[in-house]
Amino acid sequence: MKLRYSFCVSLLVCLLASQWVAADDITRRATRLEPLELNAADGFSIKRYELEAGVYYRWRIQSDGLEEYKLLAPDFFRESWIDQVVVEGLEVKPMGLHAVEFDRSGQMDVWFVTIRPGTYPFYIEGLERQGFSGEFVVK
User: Fold this and answer.
1) DSSP code per residue over 97-137
2) Burial of residue 82 (number of CB atoms within 10 Å: 0-12, 13-18, 19+)
């Protein structure tokens, strides 16, 4: 009887501890940002994202494939923790990012946590005047 009681108490402690750890894990549910579309005729579909520091986000980026696009956001990526980049169901767990590139049409998801407040540009080098520039504002 005493062994059964000890087992039940141990099981209860483990269950409560796992619930506490799960509740503290910010990566359990990402806030989905409005997808960014890269369109040769119009540029970026979104010019400004307003984010909160310490929040876990999923950013979907979609390309029309009419141009090669190298999307740069070096300061933003440096001030964020990049959890993963998902392309066609394949996950990459990087130590950091400088840019993401599209050679054809498709989409990718970047999962990240913003760390430091500030205003950070994102752009396609050489195409800023064609509408390929925007900013992240992290509060």
Assistant:
1) -SEEEESSSEEEEEEEEE-S-EEEEEEETT-GGGT-EEEEE
2) middle
- Give the domain ranges of the chain: 28-138
Distance CA 22, CA 134 (A): 35
* Main-chain dihedrals φ then ψ at residue 33, nearest 5 degrees: -80, 155
139 residues of the chain, pLDDT tens digit each: 554 544 433 433 343 344 444 456 766 888 999 999 999 999 999 999 999 999 999 999 999 999 899 999 999 999 999 999 999 888 999 988 999 999 999 999 999 999 999 999 999 999 999 999 999 999 9
DSSP 34: P
Give, in words, the CATH class of 28-138.
mainly beta
**Pair of tokens at residue 99:** 């840019």
DSSP annotation of 55:
-
Which residue matches tokens 């990566």? 27
Say what the pTM is: 0.78
